Amino acid sequence: MRAPASELPIVFDKVALRAGDTPIVEDMTLTLAGGAPSVLIGPNGSGKSTLIRLAMGLAAPSAGRITWGHRDHTDGKRRAMVFQRPVMLRRSTGANVAYALAAVGVESRLRAECVDDLLARVGLADLGRRPARRLSGGEQQRLALARALARDPEVLFLDEPTASLDPAATKAVEEIVQRVAQSGVKIVLATHDLGQARRLASDVIFLSRGRIREHAPAADFFKCPGTPEAAAFLRGDLVI
Hints:
Blueprint: E1 10-19, E2 22-32, E3 38-41, H1 48-56, E4 63-68, E5 79-82, H2 93-103, H3 108-121, H4 137-149, E6 155-159, H5 167-182, E7 186-190, H6 194-200, E8 203-208, E9 211-217, H7 218-223, H8 228-235
Parallel strand pairs: 3-7, 3-8, 5-6, 6-7
Antiparallel strand pairs: 1-2, 1-4, 8-9
Helix pairs in contact: 2-3, 2-4, 4-5
């Protein structure tokens, strides 16, 4: 059996996205390769979520080109995404994961074992029968991660996954993200939390006004940002 074709690298070549005459992102050139987590930071409206949607194939560029593993189109089955506020299905925690497994073609006879494994990976092994909508915010986000991992992704996009969580729940999600990254899954995470970016990032992509202003190793970026906008953002100044 042939190995599945890789989704990586994901390459943006002068990508733009417009809504009518309004530019959303412009002249975006970027390579997302395998390895440790890449973190997107920048002020509100800078283009972080749009970049993720484009990389996931949920939006098509108005100009420029995006390739996945040097191909213009793939089925996207090995890309997954977790939103800031994931929607929980009206069923149990375990059934939410089983639904995700069925959606990617896992045979019914294998699903129960896979559900147990995925719930264990995110620390929800004892909550499989609980209605998903009765979980706490942090537990729901961990369930969303389990559903995403049901796709056996090569690359996992996380859009502000801990923005509404308390510190304990944030820590639990970050620990899962670190374990997933260590297993070989490429993580691309958008966050406003500079502490989180410092803890998780191998490289930082800083966006402002719909453009990538800086892309650097995390240690270099936080020690000596290369642009005045990035330096201002790290100081906590308003960047618009």
